[in-house]
UniProtKB/TrEMBL annotation:
One of its GO terms (molecular function) is hydrolase activity. PANTHER family: DIENELACTONE HYDROLASE (PTHR17630), DIENELACTONE HYDROLASE DOMAIN-CONTAINING PROTEIN (PTHR17630:SF95). The lineage of its organism: Eukaryota, Viridiplantae, Streptophyta, Embryophyta, Tracheophyta. It comes from Brassica cretica. InterPro entries: AB_hydrolase_fold, Dienelactn_hydro. This is Dienelactone hydrolase domain-containing protein. Residues 23-99, 105-182 form the Dienelactone hydrolase domain.
Length: 185
């Protein structure tokens, strides 16, 4: 991995293949698997674990969680404040799950939505609609920001050699972490 700026990696959704899995991992990595995952079955997660076990100096954590299915880490019920203390969406395709009309009654935990100015999947106008809904529930707490001059995927799929792209992604990551620290303390 040439991503030297990464301090720790967490892989919860395995959209990678074993053939492309980097054997030169240099940062601690966690892989969280699901017992009933049709895309990344437990046997494949075990193969990732074997690769990581061959590099004990890096540090790794691999666990297959029982009784859950594919996508378990990205699906949460924001109607259950006992399960979710705060939520953040920088990958707003998930907003489709919220069904804009139900959104006000579902939100019971603080939520942050980070949007991209040039996002064709979740355009700023849609992000603004969610912002208006969240603003009507000040008791819940919310933070919405549309980042200028960035496109869909700017927080995870950016050119590490582009200083502006790195700056925008790092700013979003910092704001996301600050949001969580504020909400879960």
């Amino acid at each position: 991995m040439k991503l030297l700026w990464i301090r720790i990696a967490s892989c919860q959704r395995h959209l990678f293949h074993l053939q492309r899995f980097p054997t030169d991992v240099k940062v601690p990595i966690a892989i969280l698997g699901a017992e009933n995952d049709f895309l990344t079955p437990p046997a494949l997660v075990k193969q990732f674990e074997e690769i990581l076990a061959s590099k004990p100096e890096v540090g790794s954590y691999v666990k297959i969680f029982p009784n859950v299915s594919h996508g378990w880490t990205t699906r949460y019920d924001i109607n259950d404040p006992e399960a979710v203390k705060a939520a953040e969406e920088a990958h707003k395709e998930m907003l489709d799950c919220f069904h804009l009309q139900r959104f006000p009654t579902d939100v019971k935990v603080p939520i942050a939505i980070l949007g991209a100015e040039n996002d064709f999947l979740t355009p700023p106008a849609l992000v603004k609609q969610f912002e208006e809904i969240l603003a009507s529930k000040p008791e819940v707490g919310s933070y919405v920001k549309i980042f200028p001059n960035v496109s869909h995927g700017w927080t995870t799929r950016y050119d590490i050699n582009d200083p502006e792209a790195v700056k925008a992604a790092e700013e979003a990551h910092k704001e996301m972490l600050d949001w969580f620290v504020t909400c879960v303390q």
